[in-house]
Amino acid sequence: MTAEITCLLDGRFALAECPTWDERRQKLFFTDIKGKAIHALDWKSRELETWTFANEVGSFALCEDGRLIVAVWDQVILFDPQTGAQQTIASIEADNPHTRLNDGKAGPDGAFWVGTMDNRSPRQPVAGLYRVAPDGKVTQILDGLHVSNGLAWSPDGTAMYHADSSPGWVDRWRFDPATGAVSERTRFAQLTNETGRPDGATVDSSGNYWSAGVSAGVLNCFSPAGALLAKFTLPVPRPTMPCFCGPELADLVITSLRPDDAPSIEAAPQSGSLFHLRPGLTGLPSHRFGAKG
């Protein structure tokens, strides 16, 4: 599997993450976590729209009613991009000064699945994974995590993938798309600094799991059985999350972060930008908060 990788948007954001395709608006949404912003790239015109928030935006997901559900530090809010109106529906780990909300996505069950991360270095296993139901009820699924990441679901919605970036594992769970219940946790992949510790992820229509190898400048593609099918080397050292997008869901976009050190930036000046390839596979429509199926 080979493909040419080009720069889609030379934005050089501090920490671009959570690319999410909205087929209704024909826009690619993504966050700049450190920039405290959500951006939307119009696929046809390439115009960029931006909304800013009071704190770092760890992740977000599309809602069935057209709003976004947004993880802002330790608060989960509903945000209307048309009016700017915000409504807080949940608070997660607000009593822990060392954690913030991180990777999150809407699941096949219509809930918002979101994890936290330890902001300190070295990171400690003090974070967790949570399910936020459409009525705002929060259920903790896991604790003892360093950096919750890599959420994605199989095409039929019966398997959920989840990663912890620091120890480098990706696990697969049996998932009930009707209730959001998880069971039968198994180890799917184990990655290292050299092979690409797992950051954000997505699944294609064939069930392959695509993981941004944030420590190695690569994008890893695994089969549903956990075999490494392909590895793409990116022109920047810190890719953060892939997303299938475009009218036919045949375009794969990868966000990236901008390192703090001058040598890394000099070696890869487009760090923090969005990159594009067409791998010959298609993706899946995004699940929406408040909608099942």
From TrEMBL:
Secretion signal span: none
Residue span(s) of domain SMP-30/Gluconolactonase/LRE-like region: 15-257
Protein name listed in UniProt: SMP-30/gluconolactonase/LRE family protein
SUPFAM superfamilies xref list: Calcium-dependent phosphotriesterase
Similarity section: Belongs to the SMP-30/CGR1 family.
